[in-house]
Every structure is written in structure tokens, then in C-alpha cells.
Design brief:
Ribosomal Protein S5, domain 2; globular; four-stranded mixed beta sheet; about 200 residues
Length: about 200
């Protein structure tokens, strides 16, 4: 049931060159070099609070804008989650977290169902946080949900500070994903009435 859930994925296009390593059974150690300081800060929070070991090295076309870098890292992280989770035998499959950060409160729920779906009402009132466009928060999580074939939902329950809202989302996703990928000794095979995911 339990085994090595550490994977490395590389993806090269004309827009980005990415190498990403994810260990679902890590301790929160991360090594990040995306070229986007705010994005590195968010990924660090994801790794630390999900207790995932994460290494991301990306050379993207930042002379254009951060869009391709953020979106493509989302694709590769989603692929890594799917590969590391394997056939999903024995894991909880569902996870959710409500995470506070000062005035901000964000709910995240995931289902490693094998079916991609993304819903979010995260609301930002500024165009950028550091060197990252706030609209890229959606693009990142949308890319993860489709590449990992997971249901991914966010509900913003409160929040005024844009940095807090974004950071809440990344950390809530980390906690929900950690919960969903944990093994439960009561589960035989995959947690599905279909018998497979």
C-alpha cells in the first residue's frame, strides 16, 4: 500500500523549461527558483504546510510576463501529484481545510476523483502581488486540477488583504491535499463504489 511517493517531472516548451520534484511523504523542505518572488513565497507555504518536499526550477519567458511560468508549473505540479498518488489505493481521496490568516478565511476542498473540475470565488482587488498577476492564482490552480484530474474548490469566507487571501488559498490547498493523500488502514483498495479511480 504505502511506498515511494516521490516523483520528478521535467517539461520543456518554447515558453518554459521546468524540472519539479514532489514527495508526498516529505517534511516541508523546499527549493524554489521560478524567477517570481511572490510565487516562490506561495509555493514555499504550500510545501511547508502540506509537509511536502518540493523542488521547482523553472526558466520561463518572464520577459513576456509571468503567465506561462505560473500556468506551466501548475500543469507539472498537477502531473506530479497524479503520478505520486499512483492508483490511490488506501488513501482518503477527499480532503478539506478552512484556513485563517488574520482577516482572511479560505476554504479548500479536493477530491482525487480522476475527474478534473475547478470552482473558485477568490476575489482580488489589486492587479499584482509583487511580480505576479493576481489573476494567475486562478490559472495555477485550474492547471493543477486538470493535470491531476482532481476536483478543486475554493470558497473565500472573508478577506480584504490580497496577500492574505492568496496565501490562505495556497496553504488551505496544502492542508486539504495532505489530508486527501494520507493512507487510512480502514480503506481496502480505492475509496470508490466503482472499484477504481
Amino acid at each position: 500500500m504505502e511506498g515511494n511517493r516521490k516523483v520528478t517531472i521535467s517539461r520543456t516548451t518554447k515558453e518554459t523549461d521546468i524540472t519539479l520534484t514532489l514527495d508526498l511523504d516529505g517534511s516541508g523542505v523546499c527549493e524554489l527558483d521560478t524567477g517570481i518572488g511572490f510565487f516562490d513565497h506561495m509555493l514555499n507555504g504550500f510545501a511547508r504546510h502540506g509537509l511536502f518536499d518540493l523542488s521547482v526550477h523553472c526558466r520561463g519567458d518572464l520577459s513576456v510576463d509571468p503567465h506561462h511560468t505560473v500556468e506551466d508549473i501548475g500543469i507539472v505540479l498537477g502531473q506530479a501529484i497524479a503520478k505520486a498518488a499512483g492508483d490511490k489505493a488506501g488513501i482518503r481521496r477527499f480532503g478539506s481545510a478552512i484556513l485563517p490568516m488574520d482577516e482572511a478565511l479560505v476554504l479548500c476542498a479536493v477530491d482525487l476523483s480522476g475527474r478534473p473540475y475547478y470552482m473558485s470565488d477568490l476575489s482580488f482587488t489589486v492587479p499584482k502581488l509583487g511580480g505576479m498577476d493576481t489573476e494567475l492564482v486562478k490559472e495555477f490552480f485550474y492547471s493543477i486540477s486538470y493535470a491531476a484530474a482532481m476536483n478543486l474548490h475554493f470558497k473565500q469566507l472573508s478577506g480584504e488583504n490580497n496577500h492574505h487571501i492568496a496565501e490562505c488559498a495556497f496553504k488551505a490547498f496544502a492542508k486539504a491535499l495532505d489530508q486527501a493523500t494520507q493512507f487510512d488502514p480502514r480503506i481496502s483498495g480505492v475509496l470508490s463504489t466503482k472499484g477504481s479511480l
